[in-house]
């Protein structure tokens, strides 16, 4: 018994070590610096809650928070219903369903950055394939600047949906396979149509799985910034700047933006604030879904 | 028995995992190394003084390796240099190397302020002879190469900024010569677009995907026009005054309003811009002396293109076009072979070596002792980029450190929004920028993050002729 316990400790040591070194230590490191003015060199200067006062009046940051909600909201509103519908369809005993599942899941295994470069080429306005088709079909008379100020957010959302649908579809399929077949059989005897089937049986019976998937989708969407960084770098003039990209630039200034000095103190405070925002949204979602559970 | 086996195997597996992790953690300065090129060395290595040299330049890798080999074979001090060409994230790699006391003896300089503040550089003035340092007289700008009377790194090559234009399109538009004033630039862009729009040809482009879409044309034209300012900073008053970009911003706004800006400029990156220029779709843009190499290898082109000094408001040149030439090499403050590293550094600054480097088209030198003897580089299109009377190196400005204290939008975003949308009102935008940057600069000064102060006697005209005739 005692030796088994030693074994358990030894086995858990690597992941314990990694969690401490790569998870907890950086968080503690950032927690300390959010009360300091620190550019990465010299002596950090303690400024109390100075960084948080700056966060409170930083219109750029709050604009990036608003952009994040537009981006995440847009992504979720399209992704979740679409992936559920796909899951319901591909959960049937259709011929070739495994191939379809694989095709829809494929974007998940591609690197977001690499695919964003491809999409940058596909969407560009001077020779991008989307504009070429739109012009040929006569839908537009001039190329559309899909990554310009007017459409950049919409384009980044579409690309995010493309990357996420397959992943959530697979999670939904896993959930659907836990719903007993006899419930559907009983319903079909009662003569329900496909829409009623989805609304009154499938969705309620997905229950906790649905709750987890939505929570995952919310946190992932709020934290997403990689493809935006490649596609627009948050531009043009901040139109697609999301909060994690804003944060990233404080720690790792992009050379193309001119500044090369890190802003570690302020970045830590912004990082803490963004974590609180994501945490709050997740908590609100849990609270709401619990309330709804009680109602229904 | 079974339990014992389980425990033993558990211990073995865990030990292996921990060893693997430790091995991964202890990877030394080979991490991040893209390519290690070790010179073929003669037999007796025991008495040799081995020094390590880190570079980040890939474009001159083969040439520099030849020079390292030549130094290893010919130096009489028994010094052996090992050159490593590092991959991206160079600053972080250097940081890790210094933190773990595994820094290279001599290395490609990175962000000067950071490197000097962290104590990475040895003081070159105590390692190099006065005679050698005299070759850099008048060039060792404070906060770029030196600090508080000590030299930490030295200049070498620089980027020279020009208006790059398609000569055929320009001639078709009725311009025998490239525009010298901003009005001419707007007009030329308009005429090129009028004639070529049906074939997808537009007069002007800049890469507005990020702030450099503004700074490329604005820094070049703004500084050449102004006798007092660079990067929005007025050296005489010691304050930011973005009024220096009023004319170039208005000109670019006009180009946008006229429809002469290539569609999609809002999301354009520099490489797609170059690809379009190489296909003859763009009349003009502003960039630096890397372009000849780009059009020779990255985007080979048949179009007839050339470069000229950037236009100013009325053709008047009161200052110089900025040349960005950061420090080239530093010697590690941690190294116990600094003297050997200094000998290698002096070798790399040899007149013949540097002249040949320029002639091969690997980089344009900012060193007058090199420009005097170097022949014309073997690279099509490089002629227009050679140093002129109107190229010069400005003293450092407090822009970067001020950015860390700035609240609200950066000047690049404000100007780009104005150019693309006409909003906000330009005068209001400039005065708002001046006020916010003044506040940020005051905060940076109050905290001692910069000691750059007003210099009432500064005159950018005095920089004219420092790099070329």
From TrEMBL, chain A:
List the InterPro entries hit by this protein, alphabetically: MetI-like, MetI-like_sf, UgpAE/MalFG_permease
Question: Subcellular location, in the record's words?
Answer: Cell membrane
One of its GO biological process terms is:
transmembrane transport
Q: What sequence ranges are listed for the domain ABC transmembrane type-1?
A: 65-285
What Pfam families does the annotation carry? Answer: BPD_transp_1
Entry's SUPFAM superfamilies?
MetI-like
Spans through the membrane: 7-28, 69-90, 102-126, 146-176, 197-218, 264-288
Which terms in the GO cellular component ontology are assigned? plasma membrane
Spell out the family assignment given in the record's similarity comment. Answer: Belongs to the binding-protein-dependent transport system permease family.
The family database entries (PANTHER family) matched by this protein are listed as: BLL4140 PROTEIN
What this protein is called in its record is ABC-type sugar transport system permease subunit
From which source organism is this entry? Paenibacillus phyllosphaerae
TrEMBL record, chain B:
Q: Which residues form the signal peptide?
A: 1-23
Q: Which UniProt keywords apply?
A: Signal, Sugar transport, Transport
Q: Which InterPro entries match?
A: Bact_solute-bd_prot1, SBP
Q: Which residues form a coiled coil?
A: none
Source organism superkingdom: Bacteria
The protein's matches in SUPFAM superfamilies, at most eight in alphabetical order, are given as: Periplasmic binding protein-like II (SSF53850)
PANTHER family reported for this sequence: ABC TRANSPORTER SOLUTE BINDING PROTEIN-SUGAR TRANSPORT (PTHR43649:SF17), ARABINOSE-BINDING PROTEIN-RELATED (PTHR43649)
Know the name of this protein? Multiple sugar transport system substrate-binding protein
Q: Which organism is it from?
A: Paenibacillus phyllosphaerae
């Amino acid at each position: 018994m005692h030796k088994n316990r030693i074994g358990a400790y030894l086995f858990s040591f690597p992941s314990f070590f990694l969690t401490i070194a790569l998870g907890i230590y950086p968080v503690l490191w950032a927690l300390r610096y959010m009360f300091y003015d620190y550019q990465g060199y010299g002596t950090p200067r303690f400024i109390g809650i100075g960084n948080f006062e700056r966060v409170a009046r930083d219109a750029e940051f709050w604009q990036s928070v608003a952009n994040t909600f537009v981006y995440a909201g847009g992504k979720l509103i399209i992704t979740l219903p679409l992936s559920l519908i796909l899951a319901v369809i591909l959960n049937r005993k259709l011929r070739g369903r495994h191939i379809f599942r694989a095709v829809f899941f494929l974007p998940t295994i591609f690197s977001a950055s690499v695919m964003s470069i491809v999409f940058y080429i596909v969407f560009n306005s001077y020779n991008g394939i989307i504009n070429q088709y739109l012009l040929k079909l006569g839908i537009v008379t001039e190329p559309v600047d899909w990554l310009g100020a007017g459409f950049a957010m919409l384009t980044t959302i579409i690309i995010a949906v493309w990357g996420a649908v397959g992943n959530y579809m697979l999670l939904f399929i896993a959930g659907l396979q836990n719903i007993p077949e006899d419930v559907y059989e009983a319903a079909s005897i009662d003569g329900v149509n496909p829409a009623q089937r989805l609304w009154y049986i499938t969705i309620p019976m997905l229950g906790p799985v649905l709750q987890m998937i939505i929570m995952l989708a919310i946190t992932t969407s709020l934290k997403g910034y990689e493809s935006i960084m490649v596609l627009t770098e948050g531009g043009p003039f901040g139109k697609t700047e999301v909060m994690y990209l804003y944060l990233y630039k404080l720690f790792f200034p992009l050379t193309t933006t001119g500044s090369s000095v890190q802003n570690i103190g302020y970045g830590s405070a912004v990082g803490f604030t963004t974590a609180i925002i994501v945490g709050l949204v997740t908590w609100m979602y849990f609270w709401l879904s619990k309330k709804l559970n009680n109602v229904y | 028995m079974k339990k014992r086996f389980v425990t033993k195997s558990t211990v073995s597996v865990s030990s292996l995992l921990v060893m693997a992790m430790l091995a991964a953690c202890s990877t030394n300065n080979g991490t991040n190394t893209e390519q290690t090129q070790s010179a073929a060395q003669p037999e007796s290595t025991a008495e040799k003084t081995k020094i390590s040299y880190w570079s980040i330049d890939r474009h001159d890798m083969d040439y520099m390796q030849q020079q390292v080999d030549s130094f290893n074979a010919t130096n009489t001090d028994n010094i052996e240099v090992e050159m490593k060409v590092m991959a991206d994230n160079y600053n972080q790699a250097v940081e890790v190397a210094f933190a773990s006391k595994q820094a290279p003896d001599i290395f490609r300089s990175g962000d000067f302020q950071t490197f000097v503040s962290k104590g990475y550089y040895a003081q070159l003035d105590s390692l190099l002879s006065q005679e050698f340092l005299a070759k850099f007289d008048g060039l060792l700008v404070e906060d770029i190469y030196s600090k508080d009377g000590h030299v930490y790194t030295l200049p070498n090559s620089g980027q020279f900024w020009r208006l790059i234009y398609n000569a055929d399109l320009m001639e078709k538009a009725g311009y025998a010569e490239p525009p010298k004033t901003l009005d001419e630039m707007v007009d030329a862009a308009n005429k090129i677009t009028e004639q070529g729009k049906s074939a997808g040809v537009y007069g002007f482009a800049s890469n507005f995907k990020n702030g450099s879409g503004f700074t490329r044309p604005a820094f070049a034209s703004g500084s050449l026009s102004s006798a007092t300012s660079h990067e929005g900073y007025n050296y005489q008053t010691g304050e930011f005054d973005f009024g220096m970009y009023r004319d170039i911003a208005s000109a670019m706004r006009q180009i946008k309003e006229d429809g002469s800006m290539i569609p999609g400029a809002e999301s354009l990156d520099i490489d797609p811009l170059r690809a379009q220029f190489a296909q003859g779709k763009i009349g003009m843009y502003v960039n630096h002396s890397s372009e000849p190499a780009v059009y020779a290898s990255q985007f080979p082109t048949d179009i007839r293109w050339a470069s000229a000094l950037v236009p100013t408001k009325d053709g008047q040149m009161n200052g110089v076009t900025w040349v960005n030439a950061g420090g080239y090499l530093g010697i590690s403050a941690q190294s116990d072979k600094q003297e050997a590293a200094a000998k290698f550094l002096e070798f790399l600054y040899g007149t013949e070596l540097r002249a040949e480097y320029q002639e091969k088209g690997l980089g344009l030198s900012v060193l007058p002792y090199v420009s005097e003897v170097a022949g014309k580089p073997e690279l099509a299109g490089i002629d227009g980029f050679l140093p002129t009377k109107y190229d010069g190196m400005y003293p450092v400005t407090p822009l970067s450190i001020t950015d860390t204290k700035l609240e609200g939008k950066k000047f690049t975003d404000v100007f780009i929004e104005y150019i693309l949308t006409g909003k906000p009102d330009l005068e209001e935008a400039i005065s708002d920028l001046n006020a916010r940057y003044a506040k940020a600069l005051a905060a940076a000064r109050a905290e001692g993050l910069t000691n750059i102060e007003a210099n009432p006697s500064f005159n950018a005209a005095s920089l004219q002729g420092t790099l070329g005739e």
